[in-house]
Structure formats: C-alpha cells, structure tokens
Design a protein that fits this description.
alpha+beta, 8-stranded mixed beta sheet, 6-stranded mixed beta sheet, 26% strand, globular, binds flavin-adenine dinucleotide
C-alpha cells in the first residue's frame, strides 16, 4: 500500500523538477522518473527568462544569482545593411537551457531522481495510480504528473488524437562564444536584443551567459534563432538524415545533413546583416527544429495531471517555455494547498487555471508567428510592432533589475 500522499513525476527536465521539488516541499513522498540516462544539462540552446521563472527557482530552493541571465536593456531592428533602424527600451534577460536546468537539478535530491526509467503506461484505480515502466517495474502513488514533454507518453494514453502540428516554418538555432565573434559584433550586438527581417523570415539574437553562468564581458555567448518558412515536404527532407531516416519534427544536431547546413550558411551570408551572417557561418553545429503548436483540451484524467510541454507547446516567439512550466508547477502546488487534502478538487482548479493560461499563450504565439508560415498570407510586419509585441509580457512579467 502506497503512503497517503505519494506523487510519481514522469520527466526530469525543468517541468518535472519544478513539480517534484514543490511537491516534496509540501510534504509529499516524491519519486521522479526520467527516460534519459545521461546528463541533460549539456543539451539545449538559448532561452528567455522572466520574473516568474526566477520566483520559481527561488521557491524551489535553487541557487539563484545574477549570472543565470544576461540583461540587455533594449530591443533593436537590425537592418540588412547592419545599421540599427529602430531601438526601443524593451529589455530581455537571455540565458541558456543548461544554465537554468543545472541549479534546479542540484536542488533536488539525487536519491529521488531515477534516471534511465521510461514510463510506458499508467493504470488507475480510484485514488491509486500506477506507472508501468519499459523495464517492467511498477510504481504506485496517489498522484501522477506527466511532465514528459511534447511527445508525452502519458498524454498519448489519455488523448491519443492530440499531437504537435507543424506551423509551416522551421528554426535554426546556434550559439557562439563571445571570443569567436567577428569584428564589429561587439559594438552592435552585445548591448541589445537584435531583430532582423529578411523577406518573410525573422532572426532574433542576443547575448547570453557563458559557461558556468559567466556573464562578464569576454566570457559571454551569443545566441540566434532564425525562423524560415518551410512546407511539410521541405521539412520532411530537412529532418531526414544521410542514411535516409526521417526524424519527424526535430533531429539530433549531428545528424543534420551537411548540405543543408552549408546551404543555410550561404543564404545567411547573402540575406542577413554582414555581421550576423558571419556569426551564423561560424557556428559549427547549429540546431534545427520544426515550429509546432500543441494544445491539449484537458490536463487532468483522474489522478493524472499533465504539466508543461506535455499539455501546451507555444511557438518560441512568446519566449516563455520555462516560465510557463514554472507557473504550471506553482499553480498545481497552490491548488493542492488551497484544497487541503482534497486532491480531486485541487486538480479541478489546476486544470481550469492552467488550461486558460495555456490557451492564451498559444494564441499569442500563433499571432506573432503567423506571417512566417509557408504558403500563408504574407502579412507585412512593421518592425516596431514586432519589437513591441514580441514575448508574452501580458502573461509573464519582465524582470526589472534596475
Ligand atoms: C535536454 C533539453 C534541452 C532543451 N533545450 C531548450 C532550449 O534550449 N530552449 C528552449 O526554449 N527549450 C528547451 N527545451 C525545452 C524546454 O525544457 C521546455 O520547452 C519547457 O521548459 C517545458 O519543459 P518540460 O519539462 O515540460 O518538457 P521537456 O523539457 O521537454 O522535458 C520532458 C522530459 O521528459 C522526459 N521523458 C519523455 N518521455 C518520457 C517517458 N516516457 N518516461 C520518462 N521520461 C520521459 C524527457 O527525456 C525530458 O527530459 C529543452 C528540453 C530538454 C529536455
């Protein structure tokens, strides 16, 4: 018989860690199960941070320091000739996935983090829920959190018809050490977030902390994300490796075909401002992803709750993936506290609140990205409007360190 309040958390990335840590702090007996056996921290690229994310990290007992993000005070339209067309006082706090993941992982006891455990299915019986793993083992609890990401096994069991759908464009991402930046990059790029608008495309780039959260000049890194329209057919090609294997909506970076990287770099040198084209050209291993939408109509199934990307994946324009998951986990734990032991009532509140938030953020992200869709209507975007509307400031607070 499981103890009265035992939670099984599936997925050991940012969402799973937030949920597991908050539950543990609230007195639950927690076990977290992560499919990957290796260290996740070395993967990932750049992301934006927010006050909500840092509130979540502090609440989780993670070591928070200013080195976790690099603050730029303005956003600028970088014209194709490399000059600045417009600058507005809209700040960003750029970071990298590993920089945020590491302190959160360090705050959570390793004895409760079971790596190399892939859940295959879930069984429920009243107030008891059982996770069945690929290795044949079973774990029982009173609550199961499906924080297993966009391809969630947990979600597929309850909502088999829901899957990520292609938005009609892809993103190339890359990161370069500050010391490898070309001449001229420092003056223009390291003090602001830069937005560039090649025809029907968009590049957003900004400085982020370097290794070991080092945000000192000379030690930072520079991150870009370049959105390019791509039809379903073009994406099928892009995500197929040299052996002919198609990887779906993403592809392990080393398997991206060399000719696609070479072609992308050639275009970069032609259509981007010279300094940015040079940066893209210098990134040895770019990342490639299909931009998708994922929207679950429900998040709670008995004693099973979806959290983070397993329920909603917004296009990256809202720059809020990690903030959203921190808020989901806080919403869950606050609902459990509000209903003092009535888990089912708490889950109803959680679902109501987080569905509304997820829908709002997805819809704003769709609006911001609509003009990038292949075959979609060409909507002329005014650079100033993009600079002002980018991100999700109406849903996620921007930080103010000043
Ligand atoms: C290694 C990594 C790098 C990332 N890098 C970036 C980045 O640079 N920029 C960005 O914006 N976002 C990045 N993301 C996505 C980002 O973490 C999410 O958008 C957001 O934080 C929500 O996280 P999540 O925990 O809900 O989902 P995810 O971060 O997708 O985590 C899901 C976790 O569940 C695990 N899992 C999946 N299936 C099972 C299963 N059957 N059993 C057990 N575990 C399972 C996965 O291995 C993964 O660790 C990255 C995610 C990962 C895992």
């Amino acid at each position: 018989m499981a103890p009265l309040r035992r939670a099984l958390v599936i997925g050991g990335s940012i969402g799973g860690l937030f949920a597991a840590q908050f539950l543990r702090q609230a007195g639950w007996d927690v076990a977290l199960f992560e499919r990957s056996a290796g260290d996740l921290a070395d993967r990932g690229a750049g992301l934006n941070t927010s006050a909500e994310l840092f509130d979540g990290l502090a609440r989780a007992g993670a070591a928070v320091n200013p080195g976790l993000a690099f603050h730029v005070r303005s956003s600028a339209w970088l014209k194709q000739d490399g000059t600045i067309g417009l600058e507005i006082p809209r700040g960003w706090h750029g970071s990298t996935w590993g920089t945020i993941y590491r302190p959160l992982r360090a705050a959570f006891p390793s004895a409760l983090y079971h790596a190399g455990k892939a859940v295959e299915r879930v069984e429920q019986d009243g107030a008891s829920v059982t996770a069945i793993f690929a290795d044949g083992t079973r774990e029982q609890g009173n609550l199961l959190i499906g924080a297993d990401g966009v391809y969630s096994t947990v979600r597929r069991q309850f909502l088999p018809e829901i899957a990520p759908t292609q938005a009609g464009y892809i993103a190339w991402r890359g990161i370069l050490d500050e010391r490898d930046l070309p001449p001229g990059a420092h003056d223009v790029l390291l003090e602001r977030a830069a937005f560039t608008f090649p025809d029907n495309e968009l590049v957003v780039s900004l400085p982020v902390p370097g290794a070991d959260n080092d945000a000192r000049p000379g030690h930072r890194r520079y991150y870009f994300i370049w959105y390019r329209p791509a039809s379903a057919e073009e994406q099928r090609e892009l995500f197929t490796d040299a052996s002919g294997r198609n990887h779906g909506l993403t592809i392990p970076p080393p398997l991206i075909r060399a000719e696609f990287i070479a072609a992308m770099k050639e275009v970069a040198r032609k259509v981007l401002p010279p300094v940015l084209g040079e940066i893209v050209g210098r990134v040895a291993q770019p990342l490639l992803q299909s931009i998708t939408d994922l929207e679950a109509p429900r998040m709670v199934f008995g004693r099973v709750a979806l959290l983070g990307d397993s329920a909603f994946v917004a296009r990256p324009h809202v720059a809020a993936g990690t903030s959203k998951v921190a808020l989901d986990a806080a919403g869950l734990i606050d609902a459990l506290a509000a209903h003092e032991g009535d888990i089912d009532a708490a889950l109803r509140q959680y679902e109501r609140e987080r569905l509304a938030f997820g829908r709002a953020i997805i819809s704003h992200a769709r609006y911001l990205g609509a003009y990038l869709e292949a075959g979609g209507a060409t909507i002329a975007r005014d650079p100033e409007q993009v600079l002002r509307e980018y991100g999700a400031p109406h849903l996620v607070r921007e930080m103010n360190f000043d």
